[in-house]
Amino acid sequence: MAAVAGKALGDSAFSAPGQRGTRQRRVIREWLGTSAAFVSAQQVREGIAAKGDAVGLTTVYRTLQALADAGEVDVLRTDTGEALYRKCGTGHHHHLTCRSCELTIELAGPPSVEKWSQSTADEFGFNDVQHVIELSGTCSNCR
Amino acid sequence: MAAVAGKALGDSAFSAPGQRGTRQRRVIREWLGTSAAFVSAQQVREGIAAKGDAVGLTTVYRTLQALADAGEVDVLRTDTGEALYRKCGTGHHHHLTCRSCELTIELAGPPSVEKWSQSTADEFGFNDVQHVIELSGTCSNCR
DNA sequence: ATTGACAATGACAACCGTTTTCACTTAGAG
DNA sequence: CTCTAAGTGAAAACGGTTGTCATTGTCAAT
Ligand SMILES: [Zn+2]
Ligand SMILES: [Zn+2]
Ligand SMILES: [Zn+2]
Ligand SMILES: [Zn+2]
Questions:
Q1: What mean pLDDT comes out for the span A88-101?
Q2: What fold does the segment set A11-86 form as a domain?
Q3: How far apart are CA A103 and CA A97, in angstroms?
Q4: Of the bound ligands, which one is closest to the alpha carbon of residue B103?
Q5: Predicted confidence band of residue B17 (pLDDT cuts 50, 70, 90)
Q6: Distance B95 CA to ligand 3 centre (A)
Q7: How remote is the CA of residue B24 from the centroid of ligand 1, in Å?
Q8: Less Cβ around it within 10 Å: N or C end of chain A?
Q9: pLDDT value at position A114?
Q10: Which CATH class for the B94-137 domain?
Q11: What is the sign of the dihedral through the CA atoms of B71, B74, B15 and B59?
């Protein structure tokens, strides 16, 4: 689904007209691809710095936001309100996240909840239902 | 479950030894009881002010946090990171919330997901699983 | 290869919700 | 009533995020 028109080694975001390909965006997107965990903007910047590249924090924020808007990364909020980002698959999915290290596994939700979600919304007269299902726990490494 | 020992017309929080019953706490808790929507600390203060009472914002924050710690209110984060609070029932439940006015209905989750949650966690070696299930939509009033 | 228009960058300041500080007030036990 | 520790709230500090704006870099057109 959602095949990119044309370009073969396509990077979907930043290919729209008026969007330029810069070193910073390449580096950020590349680094995100190496992290299985949800990470903060600060962590993205530090991780990139540790590899010798430097990107301004403002640029990290803007790029992450653009990627989130493009649907290329998922965003969630910690209980302190901080935003965490992760490069995820494109289809509908949920997460199993370690509360200690934020390691995350993508899950296909149980099919029954999709129905349940819709019928419950109908029952109470709500439209345009969306559902959020997140599992969290402690991974074997963090035991 | 979690019956309060002794006191009959019990208010669970603020009844521990060393906890004092103040006007501010009474007013905040009372006002929360009248709101079916998730509300911010600011909104709590404004709502109380509109009824002629005045409570410092710091006190609102502290009281909401104490109530949350005591399990008397649920907390969730908006997509901007702001904390919203709601006086909910004590049992395990989920929410159907209007994205426009934050009106919220408490739901019993579909029994199947409780099992699914546990078995999925087991499968990936995660311990102490918790799950968050939130439905959102547009309520009939906000249509 | 050179140019030029305009998107992108990043140091810095502003922002805003939340927490901390601290001098003052007050509930409630004795 | 009195005394003490809990509570209050104005103001300052805090931290993540966003806005500003002068400078830099991309890339289409020449
Ligand atoms: Zn995801
Ligand atoms: Zn872990
Ligand atoms: Zn609730
Ligand atoms: Zn509504």
A1: 95
A2: Arc Repressor Mutant, subunit A (1.10.10)
A3: 6
A4: 4
A5: low
A6: 6
A7: 42
A8: N
A9: 87
A10: alpha beta
A11: positive
Mutation choice for B interface testing from A122, A126, A130, A140 by most B CBs within 10 A: A126
Please choose, from the candidates A7, A29, A133, A47, the residue with its C-alpha nearest in 3D space to the C-alpha of residue B134: A133
CA B50 to chain centre: 22
Is residue A128 classed as helix, strand or coil in its secondary structure? Answer: strand
Percentage of chain A exceeding pLDDT 90 = 82
What CA–CA distance (Å, rounded) separates A5 from A66?
20
CA torsion through residues A117, B80, B65, A137, sign? positive
Q: Which nucleotide is nearest to B54 (CA to C1')?
A: D9
Domain ranges of chain B: 11-86, 94-137
Mean pLDDT of chain A: 90
Vertex A77: Cα angle to A71 and A81 (nearest 5): 140
Amino acid A26 CA to nucleotide C6 C1' distance, rounded Å: 20
A12-62: pLDDT as tens digits:
666 666 789 999 999 999 999 999 999 999 999 999 999 999 999 999 999
Q: What band does B4 get if pLDDT is binned at 50, 70 and 90?
A: very low
* B138: β partners: A127
